[in-house]
Amino acid sequence: MQRLISTLHGAIEGLGVDIGEPDLEFCAVLIHASMSGRGRSFHSIKHVFDVQGHGADPLTTLAALFHDTVYYQVDGGLSGKRAMLLDGVVRDGESGVVLANEGDDELTAMVAAVFGFDGGQVLSPFGGLNEFLSAVLAGRVLSSILSLRQLCQVAACIEATIPFRGKSSYDALYERLQGVSSTYALALSDEELVAAIHRAVELANRDVANFAFPEVAWFLDNTWKLLPESNVPLRHQTTYTIFEYNSAIHKMHEFFGFLDPKVVFASFRGVPEPACVEHLTSRARHNLDVGHRYLGAKKVTMSLLMALARLTGGDAPLALFMGDLPEVGFTPQRLEMFLPQPKAFAASCDPEVFALLAVGRRSESTFDLRNSPLSAHLYASLGDDGVAAILGEAPLPDDVEMSSKFLEFVPAWLCREVALACARMVDTRA
Hints:
58% helix, single chain, elongated, mainly alpha
């Protein structure tokens, strides 16, 4: 909290503006409370400081502090002070969250223009809803301190953090800022407009910096922090089921396979330099590729467990089959204790993927093991080719019939090894 207050105070002072201690405390407490919600694990207060970076200018710092203050689908909508401060901005409609008509609210209308949104438009959580509400929240909280000109540039920074849209989105943002500057008499020069987009691009790239981490294990650490945010059952550390865990893995596997590395990092008029963007994109491509194959191995593993569960009584807590998570002073019985050593390593077994499965990600997770012993066992025997064949040909084990058919695509001896280990774990189904 003290670091947040100090950072906020420094940014506002850096703009040559005074802020009273009560207002400073109100802003800091609001940001801290917003980023500390029960569903937050990646988009936390730590993420704010990661995105701020070192040496950021005051407007960028303010944008970083506010850019994730609203995470509608994770926070369960708006509540408390945020609901009060954002009153009248959006309403619930039949098709989703709808932007209300701005009326006489000049600030909200300006922020909507920066984002290219119109009254009555349904706002998607994946297309700017969270960023827009965060920008309006920043504007309303800071409106008595900063000018409309400054708030416009903060909003532009926050808009740029809508991810995975490609480079053309920043050209469009530049054009919208030109229009906003004219409409609201902000008198932003072309040099200032370009600087605003450069500032926004740099913030946006720090927001997705984990995609270019030099080690896949660190990249996957952040992936595992994101999983409970978008999959509520995983927030209940010991009770989520095989199906619920598999569903989370499936969605992330699909996302990694779909995401084009070229749209991860932003640039505008030479910032960052092309060589820098290419380096970041290359790292993202590698992390996504290895991560996709890592998740593919886990998806096959969970599908196999799900098939065995459905054939022996139905879906069940993952802990029933795999065992409880270890705790300090307690080493539980785990399924991997009953697996034999792999007979041989498949030719297409990638040492990097295997190490991630066998040794694990860089840090522990609140809901999962750091490593994946059962997935490592299966991947050693199947390799990338075997995993891809099962994912491409086997049906999803959604019911008893499909579960039986799924098992036909897994080598019989491998099914037997896993089934025997499960029988040692699950006495009630053996």
